[in-house]
Amino acid sequence: MDAGYDVMRLAWVLRDLPVELVGRLRSDRVLRLPKPPRVYDPKGGRPPKHGPEFRLAKPETWPEPAAVTLNDTPRYGKAEARAWDRVHPRLTHRSAWIDLDGELPLVEGTLIRLKVDHLPGDRDAPPVWLWSSATGATPDDVDFVWSCYLRRFDLEHAFRLFKQSLGWTRPRLRDPRAADRWTWLVIAAHTQLRLALPLTADRRKPWEKTTRPGTALTPTRVRRGFRNIRPHLGSPARAPKPTRPGPGRPPGSKNRHPATRYDVGKTVKRPETLIALRDSRR
């Protein structure tokens, strides 16, 4: 997920599920390292909960990484990844954690710094900071995490195709089962477009660029030429029979089975401070 989402909060909410969350962090974040081993102090006192600060913008605060990998990629050149284990934020009773009673948790994970030579088009590539909810990552796990994050851009284009071209969010369905069936129909339509890729000619619009030789067509362009190959494909279904719409409900009669209506809910403004929250409960 992108830096606009609180990946650490979601990781704590979904801590009981067998999932691993990966998110991008802003380059100005300040995190904490694991707490050092406890040393006996004759004065006593509470043991530390957090370790030293890890400022993403200041390399002098970075310790030695737990894992370092170097790979050659066809699109980005050399990709160097450095990983630090058990890095976590220092939480406070604000924002999403204001309603949590008791001591705040430690949400530890693996911090990854990814640096590539260039972006597609020979553009400069600033380093990318990623955070994974899994700890104890091996070098192979680190490469798997950042490679999955780079596939996020392909997934975003796929969801945009589902919504804009295939009408995934067009119908207003009331039953969750109907929504699931419609989703599977959209997936089946997308699968047909992928299978029809070698059979379709490029029918681009005047303002679009010409497809380079050896480059696959996008699903949107395949959809434009799909109607031309459909008459040449066989179908196991028989020819449709002529029919007419049903009579429907008689005029003037009431609907005896109205659809269930659900309240859309109301967004309540959350107090910004802990003192304001206590005052609102009185």
From TrEMBL:
Residues 206-282 are annotated as: Disordered. This is Transposase IS701-like DDE domain-containing protein. Coiled coil: none annotated. Residues 221-230 have a biased composition (Basic residues). Transmembrane segments: none annotated. It comes from the Bacteria. Residues 263-282 have a biased composition (Basic and acidic residues). Residues 1-89 form the Transposase IS701-like DDE domain.
